[in-house]
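hey so u asked for the seq, here:
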Amino acid sequence: MRRRFTMALLLEAGWEILENSPLIINRYREVTISLGYVGDSVLNSCSDVVMMALGFVFAWRAPVRASVAAALLMEIVCLLWVRDNLTLNVIMLVHPIDAIKAWQSAGHPLH
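ran it, structure tokens below
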């Protein structure tokens, strides 16, 4: 458990560093509705690491079905509430789809 937790923590911390690099910041600006994105605040990045740790402990302790259900519920709620979630972020970073960008922009108050 400790080894897996350490690996997950290092992976999340590594992503937070990469996410706030010019490479990813510029990619967000180019292909998502985040035109003015300048990176995450230190507080946001630290919170992301803490939330990952809490999620890891939850997934470790909870039945697999509960973990899968929680992940799906969070993705669906974020999708419907703010038109954004981890799945859409990955899709838009890897292979942007204009229809997703248009749908997200339609619900964005600044567009």
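The chain has one domain: 2-106. The chain has a mean pLDDT of 92.
lmk if thats what u needed
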